[in-house]
Amino acid sequence: MANEDECLFCSLIACSKSGKTEFLYKDRFVAAFRDINPKAPHHILIVPLKHISTVNDITDEDALLVGSMVNAARKVAVGLNLKSYRLVLNCGADAGQAVFHIHLHLLGGRSFGWPPG
Ligand code: AMP
Ligand code: ZN
What we know:
Layout: H1 8-15, E1 25-26, E2 30-34, E3 42-48, H2 63-79, E4 85-88, E5 104-108
Antiparallel strand pairs: 1-2, 2-3, 3-5, 4-5
The structure holds adenosine monophosphate (AMP) and zinc ion.
């Protein structure tokens, strides 16, 4: 589990101050940027500015932040004119989490099967 000092997404958020990461959206809780390896025509990650490794590490105090992630995804979808899309939040390696700073995937621009693989 990455801590804040060695976390890829914390670095990307810090880099935004120098303009290296292009954000589609940012507020006091979250930032959104395009996934480097997109799985759909639109693949955006909504990432809290605060480092939280996994969903298991969320506390009651983070409720507003966590709600902001979905609300930010909605705003990004509106900006991209997406009416139908999928939101995914992987928790733990067995569920497919590779970056241990929680992030909501917003996937859109194609149809999706169910159940996911
Ligand atoms: P997960 O498997 O849920 O942890 O998702 C991690 C996501 O981060 C993957 O979809 C990666 O393609 C994406 N990713 C990894 N490195 C970067 C990066 N430097 N910039 C943007 N997205 C990244
Ligand atoms: Zn982090």
